[in-house]
Every structure is written in structure tokens, then in C-alpha cells.
Amino acid sequence: MIESVRFPDRWCVEGECKLKEISDTVIVRKGRELLRFTLLWGEKHQKRMSRVTFFEVEILDPKTKGQLCFLDKVEPHATIGEIKCLFHKAYPQWYPSRQALKLDPKGKALKDDEILQNLPVGTTATLYFKDLGPQVGWTMVFLSEYAGPLFIYLLFYFRLPYIYHHKHAFTSSPYPAVTLACVCHSIHYIKRLIETIFVHRFSHGTMPLRNIVRNCLYFIIFFNRTVFSIQLAYYINHPLYTPPYYGNKQVNYALAMFVICQAGNFSIHLALNNLRSDGSKARKIPYPTKNPFTWLFFFVSCPNYTYEAGAWFSFTIMTQCVPVGLFTLISFIQMTIWAKGKHYTYIREFKEYPDLRMPIIPFLL
């Protein structure tokens, strides 16, 4: 039995109260359940009501099973992200990115965009809370990781004491290739820093603060920046370094190729960023634009890796240094693995995906 009906200005018990004006929204209390009705008027003033059932959300500690928070009258279309915001109001120290909510204490964390009514729960949902610890934004993480190789290379270029023999401290190389190599290396990482701030969109906004030191070391040593990143700086800037065999002609051609590849890589990142300009996280097929650098999308799925590999290949030609060549080879192998993974994901998710495209090298690989 319906106990009471609430219009915006008063409560009416079982229709005993008459209203002069009918509101668009009516809330009905039926026992402990609140029902919302929306009144819609047609040409003949016929009313149509849609029923919405509110949810109750109970958030528990997974270890003690004690109740941390009880949320009443939660909209069925509320997302997990919105529930985290409500929980944050009760516990200000646990901001949304620090929270993980699960249906099972040992299960996977729910995604922020999951909708409450679509979860396998009744009108009273029980969620388990996990504290992920202090968080740091991914933008700050990548800024720290990209700044590392940039800073390390400059130490070798300026020949700080104790790197080479003391008589070479703060000296400079007489070869233009060494200076151009430093400029190109710096431009590469400065570009990455700029892209991190203004271009890239991260699917996960934060990461645990405790992981940032580990990630910085991992990036410099393993993540496409192996120990060779230190070795190439050491050998290119060494006092005994010899210039390329074909001299300035070889350096200039390599420099032109490097600049083209860097511009192409930046153009691809902009094109990928524009795919999510509406804020959507859904995967989409990237297509060429009016920018000629994006026309490589006709032939490969990941032209950003193609341009990246081309940049390091040109850097190898410019310096004619074996450690740089080994670094380029290892980087290319890693980028090929990534490109193949993304390529097959596109094929699996999109039936209309272009058949002509290869992962990283047109017509070959």
C-alpha cells in the first residue's frame, strides 16, 4: 500500500490533499522504498508515469566486514565514480582516485564508468572498499620519467668532473655531430614533455605515489630507455669520439630525416588526441587527416612508432655510434611488439578495419 505521496510543496496522504497546480515530478513513499513518478501531459492532458527505484549502497571494510558508510536513495543510473564522490564526503581523507570499490573483497575493482543498476546486485548493494594509498597524477609521472634521460645526457655533454678524465672536465667536442646529437636528443625529450602536458590523454588519471621511484628507474633502465641510454651519451660525448665517415653530408641528411620523423610523430599524437576530443574513452579507428604526416595511417596502424623508429635510425646515422645502433634495435623490437598488440586489437574490435594496414612498417611488418 502506498503510504504517502510527496509533491514539491507538500505531502499528501492517499490523495486526500488537492493541488491547484500539478508538478512534473512526484515522489512516492512505499514502506522504506521511494518511487519517483514523472508526469507528462499530452494534448488531451493525459498523464503518464515512469517508475524509478532508488538504491541503497552499503560500503564495508573487507577485513572486518564493518560498515564504513551507508548511502540512501542513490539513483539507479549513478556511476561508481559518483558513488566514490559520495563516499569522499563522508571520509575526506579518501579522495576518489584513492578508492577501489569491489563487489567481492578479493575481486577486481569496479571501473568508474560502471552503472549501479547494471551490476549484479539488488536494490541494496554491498561494496567493499580498499585504500590505494596516496596518488600522483600520470602527467607528473611521465614528466619525471622523461626528464631523467634528458638530464642524464646533458651531464655527459657538458663533461662534468669524474665522468671522463679530469683534464677533459667542462670541455667541449670540436665536432658538429656531437653538438647536433645533443640538440636532437634534447628536442626529442622536450617534445615528449610538451606532449605529456598538452597532448596526451591518460585512461587512468593517477598511480600510487609509492610506485613513482620504481617507474622512473624502470623507464630509464628498461622501458625503451635501457642502460644503452647512458652508454650512448657516454660514447657520443667521449673525448675520443670520431665523427661520421662521410662527414657533414651524412650528418645533414640524418638531421633532415630526424626533423621529419619528429614532426610526423608529433602530428600522429595530435591526431590520436583528437579522436577523444569529446572526452570519450572508447577506442576508435584513426584515419588520415589533411596533415600529410598522418597519411601514413593508410598503411600502418601505429605510425607514431614508425616515426619514432625512424627518428632513432636517423640518430644512429648522424652519430655513427655502435651503442646508439644497439639502442635503436632494442627500441624497434619493443615498439614492434606494442604495434602488433594494438594492430590485432583494432582487427578484433572493428570488422571494417582497413585490410591494407600493417602494424609498423608498410607492406612488411
Automatic annotation (TrEMBL):
Cross-referenced PROSITE patterns: S5A_REDUCTASE
Pfam families named in the record: Steroid_dh (PF02544), TECR_N (PF21696)
Transmembrane regions listed in the UniProt entry: 136-158, 216-236, 251-272, 293-311, 317-339
Coiled-coil portions: none
Enzyme class: oxidoreductase
Subcellular locations according to the entry: Endoplasmic reticulum membrane
TECR-like N-terminal domain residues: 55-131
Pathway: Lipid metabolism; fatty acid biosynthesis
Keywords: Endoplasmic reticulum, Fatty acid biosynthesis, Fatty acid metabolism, Lipid biosynthesis, Lipid metabolism, Membrane, NADP, Oxidoreductase, Transmembrane, Transmembrane helix
InterPro entries for the chain: 3-oxo-5_a-steroid_4-DH_C, SRD5A/TECR, TECR-like_N, Ubiquitin-like_domsf
SUPFAM superfamilies: Ubiquitin-like
Membrane topology (UniProt): Multi-pass membrane protein
Residue ranges occupied by any 3-oxo-5-alpha-steroid 4-dehydrogenase C-terminal domain in the UniProt entry: 206-365
E.C. designation(s): 1.3.1.93
Family: Belongs to the steroid 5-alpha reductase family.
Name of this chain's protein: very-long-chain enoyl-CoA reductase
Gene source species: Huso huso
Origin organism lineage: Eukaryota, Metazoa, Chordata, Craniata, Vertebrata
